[in-house]
Amino acid sequence: MDLLIIFIFGLIIGSFLNVCISRLPKGESVVFPSSRCEACNTRLRFFDLVPVASFLLLKGKCRYCGFKLSWRYPGVEIITGILFVLIYLTRDWNARLISDFFWTSLLLVISFIDMDYYRIPDSLILIGLGAGLIFQIFIPSLSLSESILGFITGGGILFLFALISRGGMGGGDIKLGALAGVFLGWKLVILSLFLAALFASATGLFLIVTKRKSRKDPIPFGPFLSLGAFISLFWGNHLVLWYLSYFVK
Ligand SMILES: [Zn+2]
Description:
By secondary structure, this protein is an all-alpha fold. α1 (2-23) runs parallel beside α4 (95-117), α4 (95-117) packs across α8 (222-244) and α7 (171-209) crosses α8. The termini are far apart. The protein has two domains: 1-90, no CATH class; 94-249, no CATH class. The protein is 68% helix and 0% strand. The chain has helices at 2-23, 53-57, 72-90, 95-117, 122-138, 144-165, 171-209, 222-244. It has eight helices and no strands. The longest helix has 39 residues, at 171-209. The structure holds zinc ion.
């Protein structure tokens, strides 16, 4: 029963994340005005905005003008719901849960905006840093020095990589790396960068081999970094122990 409640909570948060993903890059407020159809501009009523259900009932079309809506809207809601359930299953029922819901939501918004626009808004990085500071006081999962060291490690490694690759890495990626260091600490942020590089090269190779992209097409790094950070946040310590167990018998 509680899993269902967490899932529905995730769907509702996911619906808000959709608003953030579509409005933040345009510099619009995520609170006002209320949601409108992007085609006919009709103000949507609450029954048009029920996560997933409205989309299914209306067969993915606007009730007023028939405009076909993207599958991404219910997609983001369902992904958020599933991730929240996963988080709930791996964490005890405590305040830490709130910070983990927050980081996951932020990483989702950053990933989708990066996929759409090839950039990561500074406002999101600043919100993350501010939240990191608040969590540091109320829900400390890391010591302050660990967070600061993580910030320097995550940002520093990507900054060096940007220098070496001459433009292969954007400023947004460097800032995201630094932010990930704040909530992961220096050890796990290194793991997350390693995982991100692994996923990004595998995906890049796949896209080039299947001729969907050429070697010159940019691939946003933010989603991979987010995925690496998410995995490190939840299973990082297990992964590190599992890896070390090969060497320390
Ligand atoms: Zn419409």
